[in-house]
Write a structure and sequence with these properties.
The structure is a homodimer. The first copy, chain A, has about 130 residues and is α+β, with helices and mostly antiparallel strands. In chain A, about 25% of the residues lie in helices and about 35% in strands. Chain A has a 3-stranded antiparallel sheet, with no helix packed on it. A two-stranded antiparallel sheet of chain A has the order 3-4.
């Protein structure tokens, strides 16, 4: 979150779909890393920010019928600029989006990933409960 | 939907996660089937209902970075009993859930699949717009 109402999305080329997909910063944990350490590293690599406030709010599965893959959803707030070199082939374009307007976001043809969409709605619920 | 406020979920054993997962009726399209035909067939196989009113409300991707898999989200209303034999190894347990209470649902440890959760929130938005 760049402020209490605005999320950061990134445009990343989706090889599987042959278009740029708008979604959340994400990546794989490295050996020995905690979930929060991995989340902050990915933030620094993909958008050039660290976060003073990181909290894991849920974990999602991908295709539980046949895959063991689990995605941890981390809410990052109180950002500060810090860039790390990552493995992205090109710099990612950042897009700011109001969390209140997920309805328009999910109608875009370039925002289709189930995990990202689920994470955004769950985060919105989480923040409403927090208030 | 069994009525305007209540969704049907199924409990299905998730081999990838070694537990029963609560999610939406789902399956693969067969050759020559339209999205709506496939959706209704899966409903008949998994919960023993057809639907007079079927509409595709969105399509979701699974892992667009490396997979081409697309999931069509179909809203089924005006259900009627009709059972088809499917390929499920055992009968699926049905659970009725109020669409207004997705917040509790996603906090359950057995409801983790990104696509199902995204589909439910998008459907809730869709129905709110429809009113």
């Amino acid at each position: 979150m760049v402020d209490e109402e605005t999320i950061v999305l990134v445009k990343e080329y989706a090889v599987g779909l042959h278009h740029y997909e708008l979604g959340l910063v994400k990546g794989r944990l490295e050996a020995g890393e905690t979930v929060l350490e991995g989340a902050e590293r990915e933030l620094k690599e993909e958008i050039g920010f660290g976060a003073h406030d990181l909290v894991e709010i849920t974990a999602l599965s991908l295709a539980p019928g046949y895959m063991t893959h689990v995605t941890h959803v981390v809410l990052a707030r109180d950002l500060y600029p810090e860039k790390l070199e990552g493995d992205e082939p090109e710099a990612l374009e950042m897009v700011h989006w109001p969390l209140a307007d997920l309805h328009s976001l999910v109608q875009r043809p370039d925002c289709t990933e189930g995990r990202s969409i689920a994470a955004l709605y769950i985060t919105r619920d989480y923040l409403q409960q927090e208030q």
